[in-house]
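Q: Sequence in, structure out?
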Amino acid sequence: MNEVSEESVMPVENVEDNASCEIEHREKPKRRRSRRFAGEKKQAAQTLVDPAEDLLQQNQDGNLKDRLPVEAVSLLPSVRPEDALSNRESLTVIAEELVSGAPLIPSSPSKRSRSRARGRKKAREEVDAQVEQMLNHAEANPTTGLSKPPKTQSQPVKKMLVSVLPGDLVEVALMEDGQMREYYVEMTHQAKIRGNIYKGVISNIDVNLQAAFVNYGGVKNGFLQIDEVHPEYYLQPHDASKGHRFPPIQKVLRVGQEVLVQVVKEPAGSKGAFLTTKVSLAGRFLVLTPGQEQIGISRKVEDAEERSRLRELIVGLNPGDGLGAIVRTVSAGTGKTTLQKDLSYLKRVWKDIRKRAGTEKAPCLIYQEPGLASRCIRDYLSEDIAEIWVDDAQTAENIRVTTSMLFPRRGDLVRLYENRQETLWEKFSLLHQIEQVFSREVILPSGGRLVFDQTEALMAVDINSGRTTGKTNFETMAFRTNMEAAVAIANQLRLRDVGGQIVIDFIEMRDPDRCRDVEKAMRAAMKSDRARHDIGKMSSFGLLEIVRQRIAASAISISMEPCPHCNGTGQRRNREWQAVQTIRDLYRKMRSAVQEGLETCICRMDAEHALYLLNTKRDRLAELEHQFGIRLEIRISGSIGVETDNTEQSLGESCRSRREEAGRNRR
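A: Exactly. Output:
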C-alpha cells in the first residue's frame, strides 16, 4: 500500500480556489479591455454632451425638431429615435445615459470574436464621425439645430451631339460630364436595315435547322426560324396543346410562299439578316405589335405604382382587334392624350403597310426605318439631356420640330453649331475618345492596357498592367487595374456595340473578396447598358464571361474591311518567306513555260515585294533564266502572282515607249 504525504493532499476548497484564481487570471486582460472601452465611451459621450449644452443655451425655447441620425440614436437603450432631441428633457436623458455608462454599441453574444470586435470598433468610429459632422454643422448653423448637413450631389450633365456630312455620313454621340457613353455611325451607302419591313419570298427550307431562307431583296437571303413565323402564315393549322409548341417547318411553309418579314438583326460577315414575321412598329412612347394581342410595360419601369397606372391607360386606349402595344420607358409620367396620339399614328402606319403589302410585287421594301438622327431623337432623347448640338442646319430644323412637340417648354434644347474653324468633336474634346473606339488597345488611367481581339466566335479582352512596383505591391496593383478595367470595358462594349460572347482576362488575384468586388464593379458599370446582357462569375483563372445583345451594326463593322495582305488575321508572312515561296512558284511556272514553247515568263507582284526580290534574290533569278533558257519579267501589280503570257509588254518596255512618245510630242 502506497503512502501519501499530507503535503500531496489538496482539500477540495483549495482546488476550487485555485480554479477560480486561474479563471480570474485569464479574465484580467478582458477586464482591462472592458475598462478601456468604457473610457472611450465616456470620452465620446462627453464630446456629445458639451456641444449639446451650448446648443440648448442658444435655443432657449428647447424646440430642436431636427434629431440625430437614426444610426446614432438607435444605439441608445431607452430613448426612441422619434423622441430624440425633441426637447430639453430628452437631450438631458441622452447626456445622462451616455455619461453614466450606457453602451454605445449593443452587447453581442459573440464578444470574444476578434472579427466582431473589429466590426464594433469600425461601427463606433463611423457613429462618432457622423456625430462630429452633425455637431460641426449645428455650430455653424444654430437656427437649424442638430440636423444632418444637406447632401449636395450635382446631377451629371448629359448632351447629345449630331454631326452630319450631307449625303454621306451621320454620327451621333451621347456624352455625360465630358465622357462619351454611346456612339452611333451611319453611312449612306451602308444604311442600316434593322427594323425595315420587306415583302419576301421563301427560296429554301432547311429541315435540319428548322428554318427558311427568304429572298427579301438583299445581297444574301435572310434567315427565318420556325419560332419567328406567325401562325397566320401556316398552310395548315397546328395544335400546340399536343406537346409540340411549334410545328415542323416543312409542313406549314413551302418554297415560293410570300411572307411579310422584318429585319431583327443586321447581316454580319458571311451571315445574312435575321428575320421575323412578328412585326413591331416603334413610336416615341409605344411599340405597336400587330398580330400579338398583348399589352406590356417596359421592364425598365421599376416603380410598381407607375406600372399599374400605365397599364390602366393602355387598356383604356384599346389598341384594336389583332393589335397589341408595349409601353416604352420614356412613357413614365405621360398622360392619356399623349399615348393616344402616338397609338393613332402607329395604327395609321400599320394600315399603310398592309395596303402596300397587298399591291407590291415581292421581293420589295415596304417600310423603312427613319435615319440615324431621327431614330436617336425617338429612342434616346430623355428629360435629363440638357443640350442637343447639331452641325447641319436642315437636320437641326428637323430635330427642332420633333423636340418642340415632345418638350414644348424647352425652346433652347436644340442648338446649331456653326463654327467652321473646328469640328463638333474638337469643340467637345471627343476626338481621342472616338479614336479609341476604332483602336485595338485602350490605355487605362493607371497605365494599364486593354487589348480587344475579335474572333469568329467571341470577343477576347485582355488586361495588361502597365508596370509592377515590387512583389509586395502586386495584389494592390492588380486590384486597382482590374477595377479601372471593369469600368472602361463596360464603356467600350457600349461604344463598340460588341455582341455575343465576351471573355475578359482579368489580372489574377488571390483574394476572393477582391474578385467579388471586381464583379460588382462590372455589374454596376453595365447597369446603364441599353442592350440585354448577362454577366457570369470570375473563375479561378481570372476569366469573366459576358453575353451581350448586339443592337445594330457597330461603327467598326461599317468602317473597317479585311487587310488585303493579312486577310484579316492581323499578321502576314515576312518578306524573306514570301521571296522563297515566289522562287518556288517561278521554278514550276518556268518549267511549264518551256514545255509550252514560250519565250517569256511573267511574274506579277506588289512593288514592295518586287523590290525585295530584285535586290536580294537577283542572282537566284539569273540562275533560273540560265537554267531554263527563257526570259523572266517581273511586273508591278496589286497582289503576288505568277502569270505566263507572252503577249503583254513588260514594265520596262511600256515605260520606254511612253518616254519616246513624250519626246516626240515635245519636238
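The first helix runs from residue 12 to 58.
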